[in-house]
Design a protein that fits this description.
189 residues, alpha+beta, hypothetical protein PF0899 fold, 2 domains, four-stranded mixed sheet
């Protein structure tokens, strides 16, 4: 019987050890599953957070791009309107010498030149404008084509100063002034 007791004792220890190993293995598997599930939840939450963040970033980027494109379109439209207005104004100025108001324009230019350069200044003007200017005593008028679009050039009696009131020069100055004014008004918005 002693042998049977020894065998039974060995079997009981073996069963007890197998149960302990099985319980330990089961606990480790449960811990690994639990840890894996926790890690999976963490990754899933991180993915959702990152996806939401990327989505907001993409949305903000798209809104910013749309805003930039809208501003560009508005700027282009303003530029087109300004160009069309300038073209129309310059067309009118180019044809000024053929308008009924040309006499008043030439006389105003002469008055400005004489005011700035003195009554004894020399006026150079094209044929269309020359017949509007009275060549009276002390007033020198020379007929020469100074600008195909009209206007005049005045020179002081001592020849040190010249005033260019040709349509081409006036157009150039007008364009520069308008561009500066437009840039200051539209550039700030």
């Amino acid at each position: 019987m002693a042998l049977e007791n020894i065998l039974q004792s060995i079997e009981e220890r073996r069963d007890s050890e197998l149960k302990r190993i099985a319980d330990e293995y089961k606990a480790k598997v449960e811990a690994a599953v639990s840890e894996t599930q926790a890690r999976l939840r963490t990754l899933q939450n991180e993915f959702e957070r990152k996806t939401a963040e990327d989505s907001r970033s993409l949305e903000n980027r798209e809104l910013s791009n749309a805003d930039i494109e809208a501003k560009r379109a508005l700027r282009d439209k303003k530029s087109q309107l300004v160009d069309a207005s300038l073209s129309k104004a310059f067309e009118i100025m180019d044809n000024m010498s053929n308008s009924p108001d040309y006499k008043d324009v030439i006389l105003q230019m002469v008055a400005t030149a004489r005011k700035l350069l003195g009554n004894d200044c020399t006026i150079r003007v094209g044929e269309k404008g020359a017949h509007f200017i009275k060549n009276s005593k002390g007033k020198k008028v020379t007929v020469e084509e100074v600008d195909p679009s009209g206007g005049l050039v005045a020179e002081s009696s001592d020849g040190t100063m010249e005033l260019d009131l040709t349509v081409s020069t006036l157009k150039k100055e007008l364009k520069e002034r308008l561009m500066l004014e437009i840039a200051s008004k539209f550039g700030a918005k």
